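Before any further analysis, we paired sequence with structure tokens, yielding the entry below:
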Amino acid sequence: MTCTQADVDTSILGAALRSIGVLVGTPHSEETPARLHRYLIYWSHWTTDPPFNVTTFRNEHPRVDQLITIPGISFWSCCSHHLLPFHGKATVGYLPNERIIGLSKVTQVVRWMAKKPQVQEHLAHEIADFLEERLDPLGLAVYIRAWHTCQMLSVGPDAPQMVTTVLRGRLKKHPAKDEFLMEVQR
């Protein structure tokens, strides 16, 4: 029988779990090392290029000059400090310039950016950087509200959610900033 790297990794994870007192080998836990291995592999397969085509369009006929907001984008990510999940909703808004983006692409960007170990503050900025580079909007905002399971380690089950906001360009001072912030409070 040939031993694969996954078998070795699973064996090491099983030994690590046993070393901290986890009963590996019961009917409920005998597959736990393999499940943990799949979980770690899932979070380590992020790619630097999106696995989808980022479709943008010329902003013309008629030209869109008002705030575009995409609220309530659900996502899961992984805390790089604890390798535990955090999940929440993101709202993305932008004041178009010469380009607009396909609606589904904003959701895909958020979920793709979320699929790696990281901190929430970086996630918000990376989403903003990615969209700003492709759209060159007059203003851009990313708002994320998420619940972090790592807080169970110190705070307990009633831990608060974390909110991060990134405002760029005209959305820092423009009246559309208030419109965007009202949208995320709905």
Q: What stands out?
A: The chain has a mean pLDDT of 89.
